[in-house]
Amino acid sequence: MPKVIYIDHTDISSEVEVENGANLMQAALDNMVSGILGDCGGDCACATCHVFVDPEWQDKVAAPSELEEDLLDGLIEPQPNSRLSCQIIMEDKLDGIVLRLPESQY
Ligand code: FES
Predict the structure, then answer these.
(1) DSSP one-letter code for 87
(2) CB of residue 51 inside a 6 A radius of ligand 1
(3) Which letter, b or e, does each residue of 45-80 get, where b requires 16 or more Cβ atoms within 10 Å of its Cβ?
(4) 41-99: pLDDT as tens digits
(5) Domains of the chain (ranges plus CATH)?
(6) Does 28 sit in the ligand 1 pocket, CB within 6 Å?
C-alpha cells in the first residue's frame, strides 16, 4: 500500500499507509496524526487541513481546483507549496509523498 510521510513543525515524522483513492486529510485523522484538523470533513470549505507539499513532490500532485485555490489564498501565510490535504487523493505515483504540517494547526 502507498505511504505518506507527515512531518510536524518540530520535525517529528509519521509514516502512514494509505489506500489508493483515499484523501490525505482523512488518512491523517484515521491514523491519529496531529496537525491536521479537517473541520469540514473534506468538503474543501475550511482550510484546516493545510499542508506544505515537499517541493520534490509538488509536480506529482494534481493541480488544485479553483475552489481550493480560493481557500489557499485566504490562509494567513500561504506558500507556493501550500495545499489542502483533503484534496490530495492517494495514487501509486504518490507513494512516499512528504507533507509538512503548519504549526498554526496545533
Ligand atoms: Fe476542510 Fe480540507 S478538510 S478544506
Answers:
(1) G
(2) no
(3) ebbbbbbbbeeebeeebeebeeebeebbeeeeebee
(4) 999 999 999 999 999 999 999 999 999 999 999 998 899 999 999 999 999 999 999 99
(5) 3-105 (3.10.20.30)
(6) no
